[in-house]
Design the sequence.
């Protein structure tokens, strides 16, 4: 199914992997795939000042369900630099659909920050693998979700680390990168992911119920529809 996926993923054999876990649909599926492939998974989440902080509760539930070796939540305040509807409360989350270009829900350099922490933790753990659930097919125009970006980070990672210079390097895995949202959902369903516990909404209420109208909610709902899978999302109002 996945070009990166199956060739690599059947080969975990208990090797340690750091898995970025936001609590959303994509990262939950990525964690399930890494666990299923036999990696010893160390989940990493960030409390970064996101307005959708209920996703951290979701991340904790997902990490528990997959019995990860450890779940670490790192606090860092990306709101201090702002520049995104997700970290600056003065910028509204758009609800009118894609308008072309990079949307205001892009968080400046977020994946670079997150992958850098994952890289550092992987070195400390002596883990040779990092998993991130970026997706280039149904993606929302984020430049740090593209294969070119991941390839560049991979190159940098092996130049920047002791593991890269003296060891066997750290491999970045992106098993979802060429999958559609519907394919991701079907793959996760096969592996037993409970999507009712995941939160994708950019602007959920305090209880974690989804708005149904932000870009992330739309993409998610379209994915369930295209996959012909019942959408378990709890909505504040009907989408
Ligand atoms: Zn939403």
Sequence:
């Amino acid at each position: 199914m996945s070009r990166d996926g199956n060739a690599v993923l059947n080969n975990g054999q208990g090797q340690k992997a750091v898995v970025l876990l936001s609590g959303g649909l994509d990262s939950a599926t990525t964690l399930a795939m890494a666990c299923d492939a036999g990696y010893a998974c160390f989940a990493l989440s960030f409390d970064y000042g996101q307005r959708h902080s209920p996703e951290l509760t979701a991340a904790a539930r997902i990490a528990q369900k997959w019995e990860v070796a450890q779940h670490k939540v790192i606090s860092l305040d990306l709101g201090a630099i702002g520049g995104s509807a997700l970290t600056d409360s003065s910028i509204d989350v758009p609800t009118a659909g894609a308008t072309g270009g990079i949307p205001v829900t892009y968080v400046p350099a977020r994946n670079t920050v997150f992958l850098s922490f994952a890289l550092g933790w992987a070195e400390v753990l002596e883990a040779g693998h990092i998993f991130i659930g970026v997706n280039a097919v149904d993606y929302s125009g984020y430049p740090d979700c593209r294969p070119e970006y991941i390839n560049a980070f991979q190159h940098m990672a092996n130049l920047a680390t002791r593991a890269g210079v003296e060891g066997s390097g750290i491999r970045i895995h992106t098993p979802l990168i060429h999958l559609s949202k519907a394919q991701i959902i079907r793959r996760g369903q096969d592996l037993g992911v409970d999507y009712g516990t995941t939160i994708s909404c950019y602007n959920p209420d305090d209880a974690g119920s989804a708005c149904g109208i932000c870009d992330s909610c739309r993409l998610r709902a379209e994915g369930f529809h295209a996959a012909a899978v019942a959408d378990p999302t709890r909505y504040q109002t009907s989408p």
Summary: The pocket of zinc ion is lined by residues 201-203, 210-211, 214, 216-217 (CB under 6 Å). The chain is about 35% helix and 10% strand.
